[in-house]
Amino acid sequence: MTTAIFEQFINGTMMGSIYVLMALGMVLIYGVMHVLNFAHGVLFMVGGYLAHLFFFNLTGSYPLAILGAMVSLALIGVLLERAVFRALRDNLRMQIVASLGLIMIIQNGVVQIWGPHALQMRPPPVEALVRIGQLSFTVQHFVIIGVVAVSVAALYLFLTRTRLGTAMRATSQHPEAAVVVGIDPNRVYTLTFMIASALAGLGGALLGPLFLIFPQMGDAPMLKALSAIIIGGMGSVPGAIVGGLGIGIVESLSTLVVPTDYRDTIVFGVLILMLLIRPWGIFGVRVRGEH
Amino acid sequence: MTRSFSNLAALACLVLGALAPLIFGGQPYVLYVLTLALCYTIPAIGVNILYGYTGLVSLGHMGFAGVGAYTTALLMKDVGVPFVPALLGGALAAGVLGVLVGIPCLRLRSHFFIVVTLAVGMILFTLFNNLDALTGGAEGLPGIPRPAPFSIGPIDFEFRSLTGFYMLTFVVTALIFALQFVLVRSDFGRSLSSVRQDEALASARGVNVFGHKLMAFALSTAIAGAGGAMKVLFLRAAAPMSFDMHESINLMMMLILGGAGYLVGPVVGAITFIAVPEFLRIAAEMRFIFFGFVLLVLARFAPRGICGLAESAYKKLGRREKTVVGYS
Amino acid sequence: MSMLKVRGLKGGYGGRLIVDGIDLDVAAGEIVTVIGQNGAGKSTMLKSIFNMVPVRGGAVALDGADIMSVSPYRMLTVGLAYIPQHHSVFPKLTIAENLRMGGYLLDDKALLHERTAMVEEMFPILKARRAEYAASLSGGEQRMLEIARTLIMDPKVVMLDEPSIGLAPKMVDLVFSTARRLAEAGKGILMVEQNVKKALMASDRGYVLELGQVRIQDEARALIADERVSRLYMGVRG
Amino acid sequence: MSAILEVSGIVKTFGGIRAIDGANFTLDHAGIYGLIGPNGAGKTTMFDIICGRQIPDAGSVRFHAERIDGVAPYRLAREGLARTFQECRVLPEETCLDNVLFAAQDKHIGTELLQAFTRNTRRRREAEAEARRMLKLINLEQYADSPAGALSYGQRRLLEIVSCLMSKPRILLLDEPASGINPTLLNTLHDFLKEIYAETKIIFLIVEHNMEFIMSLAQEIVVMHQGQVLMQGAPDAVQANERVIDAYLG
Amino acid sequence: QDETVTFGIVTAQTGPLAAPGKFQMNGFELAVEQINGAGGFQVGDTTYKLALQVYDTRCNAAEGASAMQRLVTVDQVPVVLGELCSPVAAAEGPIAQDFGVPLITTVPTAASLTEQDNPYYFRINANSNQLNAALAQYIQSIDGAPLSFIAWNNDAGRGGANGIQKLLGDNYEIGYVGFFNVGEVDFANHITNIRNAGSKSVMLLMDEEPGALAIRQIRDAGLEVQLVGTLAMGSNRFLDRLNAEYLGGMVQYSAFPPNAPIERIKTFSDAYKAKYGEESHGFAAQSYDGIFAAVEAMKAAGTTTDPEAIRDALSEISFDGVIGPIKFDETGQASPPVYITEWCDDGTRKIIAPADLAAECGAG
Ligand SMILES: Nc1ncnc2c1ncn2[C@@H]1O[C@H](COP(=O)(O)OP(=O)(O)OP(=O)(O)O)[C@@H](O)[C@H]1O
Ligand SMILES: Nc1ncnc2c1ncn2[C@@H]1O[C@H](COP(=O)(O)OP(=O)(O)OP(=O)(O)O)[C@@H](O)[C@H]1O
Ligand SMILES: CC(C)C[C@H](N)C(=O)O
Ligand SMILES: [Mg+2]
Ligand SMILES: [Mg+2]
Questions:
Q1: Class of the D5-249 domain?
Q2: Is the CB of residue D37 below 6 angstroms from any atom belonging to ligand 2?
Q3: How far apart are CA E341 and CA E288, in angstroms?
Q4: pLDDT in tens, B146-178
Q5: Domains in chain C and their CATH numbers?
Q6: Which Gene Ontology molecular-function terms are recorded (chain D) (predicted)?
Q7: Is the pTM of this model over 0.80?
Q8: CATH number belonging to domain A1-277
Q9: Do residues C32 and C179 lie in contact, with contact meaning Cβ atoms separated by under 8 Å?
Q10: D109 to chain B: which residues are within 8 Å by CB?
């Protein structure tokens, strides 16, 4: 049983890392722009497809493919912010409509371009195995955990140590005041979307090879990430990290004791329970004026 | 929202709806799409009470619709209960579940409540899919009977034909619409509205915010349950996929698109949301790409939904200057 | 010489003109206060000068240069600062980070340090609590921080929208004396106030705004003495 | 006879901050009371506690000898405890008339639902007439059918106060009613409150930083400082008190 | 001058089942191309060309029903074919009955579909009972207990896993049963449980994409179990996703072994490969046969427009399709053979059941 727990712990950490990447992007966008971007999952998926494209058709190198996917996604993020979300800044309702519109366009567009069948790519870290006792994991498992850890650290440093990062936090807290001190909010919004999309792209490029690249590959991570940012306190970066990892691990460990067809029931049941016990999220603080 | 606009729009919908069988009698497909749209209008009215008036977002409402649907379907199919009590039973089951979920969860802050509804919706879907013995599981529940025909005096009512079932759905929808009308125009509706606009103020003025939310949630889940029941009676088959998260999100979208907080928002939204993709069938694989663009355009140019657009057009048309808002 | 020069300014929201042709001047070293009934358009006037309303027209010049088409977030670079009516500190940034954001447009690190040091000397409380969240400051202290923050860019003119709102009497005095210190340092100060008497007493000149237009303009002392002004805008019964 | 409102030993902390630190005061008889103190003294928090919006960590609040701390705000509101908010709250989408009517309506869910199905137009019309009369008193009658969100700051404050009065409270708490209001309009408000008090003898408890306003309006002033009550007394006494001057008036 | 008959098609062109939908469409289109290429088909004195009116159902019951409604009332097709998802077919069936237009489904497997007393409902493919029977029989013939399952949490997966367990009976030791949602691709937790259960064999009830992944993860985790798969896993496309060493010894049921040494299968497979550049697929073969069943029925009924007559003819027809002899029983269910094939070490397949069709490596 302990080996099983260990195995599931590693798997959960790996999936949790992916959720963290997604959650960070969503929490940035939500925190800075108050946009709940349901389309984040399809950006993740596009990341997978682009990594495939870069790997097979352009570079042949997996790290370059990841980089290519991230850069392309960053550009797509800029485009989306400018063309779609900027005009809807203060209209939460229509942001939801628009992001669903985007999901339809992108998901079906991908099927038009790449066909409905799942793609596969197997860069070296997916082929190579690490044996720990009687267990074995692909190297990719650890690559994912490591890359995510580094990205999270980098993002954290960016947000707290740099002028631009501080400006991002400032804008999220008080957009009008940001203008008054000379921050161009549009630039911050574009930057936010760019970073968030690049993170989604990174997620897709990391997970796609381990599993499959297909049009719905972003749906589940998006949902889990959404849950993660909510239990993390909506707008809290550490909350998103703990929430994402927590969901990944709970979901993996739960399968040792309950039938897998009830896995989501467990995950979401735990979520509900947690909210009932700590109604303001893990990291959320209760602030005056909120209810 | 101007009252005259709302009343006018409601009246127009009612008249058009009642006349639809005459207008589209020769086009069963159109009538079919309208019936389906009405099946979504009902739960959308539920969401309107919850979101449009009370300000609570639910991303799991089709789960509650599913509870109503399976309850009604099983009552009619396996127990042989007649339509009206079965429908009420379905609505009741969904409403009771709404209360059970609402009591612990409605005290949560709004965005937590969103995720709770999402979670409850997922859990309900899992149950529909996995309880093979009860719900038929993933293979669905085929063979759900239509309401039995009956006659009052010389007039026969039957529901197997499209026209018959359309009229039945229309009557159910109209009743629920009337309920919505009465509720939102009452003191109760004003209290719900105050909860949406400012909870702290509402409770300082004596509104039992939790109680009102619970009532709104119960009503809205019960109405959704009735809608789900009509849907499976119409399709004569129940499937878990008909009540999954995507459907719940679509329901929310319908309302927003039609115009949340407008009496006829659910009607307009459901018809748009059902009819446009049907119309786009000619576009085959491209149809959801087109539909996606339609949504983007609407989001951009109809910030308060189609009803909002219509309302401003109506106001321009009337040019009836009300009291000038401004300084003294 | 007039530092801030406003001519025929118009501004409003979606089709409604709230500010309707205002002429106004602020010279270096002077405090100018604008008063008027609630809803007269005072806040809108400041926002229009700062290019923060959707509809606007007229001319605004700062130190001789036309700034009509400068984006709000570029205003600080040309020397115009604005402190909105509602609190505008970044609540969950530390005080130091708030000051850092005040110097967002400053690329010169040395200059930034110098100015921050200067401002911290001016407002010692900010230095003492620099690592705390701005939200932990009292209302009056937050006003101080807002003023301090704009000073990092060394603006020529500072516009304040009801700086005394919600402040205890002691704090009000502190804010007005700070304004005086800034004026003495050669900056032009443009204030909007409902605390009319105290504000005018702290000012050099004043404007009375009504329905988006300037009704009266005069020396502050003269306005206080004006019987009609005191009756209509200062609540003096008569 | 017991006091009307009795606050004793209230403590309230937020994280590390002791917003209220053992405050005591009593309002013995009907009257207009002032509550003053420096920024952050805990005045608004005190209001929140009296109205049930915050639950104190320690201490008690009694209203006509009955303990009311921790009772839900809506229950207290139904018991006749009304308040305005420092940041000024109205229902922005409703018209001014509806704002006032809303304050007056019975908010028991059962009654509301009953009303939905048995409309009593006569009673509704009566309430409307009363509401319009109130709006007229504060010069807002021409805004009766405009959404409250379109009002200017000062008018919104007046609307909020009138709404509270419309619910026929037994005690009314006003949080900085004068802030941001033009002095001339303030005179109107001053007279209006005096008039209402003379008419109804309900109790007013008013937080204010505008000394001129509160000192001429109130019969008794409570001074808070750093979460405690510094003193309670007649306006003259308060204004002369050295500690008050030191901490607050400057 | 030729007339054209239009068949209605309901299938998933978008959504999560677009991939199997593609195979289904390939089958339909190949049949149409062949029939039209041969000059059409003759009913009475007229030669008819064939056309398809295709509507997307996204595996959504309401959409399926709308599409069905549109086909029978707007397009007024004489026959409708297709569908992938059982619950959607369940909603389409009653409309077929209401409007008296035969519906021939070619992929959905839920047994209940043909138990609704609906004379207008026909199913060309084996239903879950038939598939399960064949599989259960095979499993009992090997020493595979305890047997574990990893199955899609949908109609096909749940139907299979539950049905086979029932057929195997209470005495047969079951190790672990795990379901996963369509679109999920992480099998780690199932593998852990399978290992814990000490399973000797594992049934994979899913499509080729998750199937390939599951097998790789099972083998990478070092589990030495007998793998039993579905028809999606006995193809060269599947081999491309993995490699032979992962597959050797695995068996799967198949509605259609593309390389079987049977003439009609060979012909079909070659034509399919020529047109689509890949190995043929069972869904395509079933759907291909569906078109021919409809055409045969029209010929027999002597009409292309009278759905009633076509229905009657359909219930009578009997012909050799590529998946086997096609004949509908009184419930509208056909009984094509269910094959069991096994992967050889060189990456080819052999047929091991039914016994009379057994063939060597390279034939499956
Ligand atoms: N964002 C806005 N959209 C539309 N109208 C607005 C907006 N902000 C203010 N107004 C209107 O413009 C008018 C003037 O508002 P403004 O805030 O400039 O007044 P003010 O003189 O600053 O009043 P106060 O002393 O109460 O702050 C008011 O009638 C108000 O209703
Ligand atoms: N929800 C809260 N979370 C954290 N701190 C709070 C909260 N509410 C109040 N405080 C703190 O409690 C103290 C008292 O606040 P309160 O608002 O009651 O003061 P006040 O006397 O009303 O001041 P002002 O005159 O500025 O309105 C302040 O230091 C404030 O920052
Ligand atoms: C692959 C899927 C389309 C299978 C289908 N759900 C069935 O019933 O067999
Ligand atoms: Mg103002
Ligand atoms: Mg206060």
A1: alpha beta
A2: yes
A3: 22
A4: 998 888 888 888 888 889 999 999 999 999 999
A5: 2-86+156-233 (3.40.50.300)
A6: ATP binding; ATP hydrolysis activity
A7: yes
A8: 1.10.3470
A9: no
A10: 188, 208, 211-212, 215
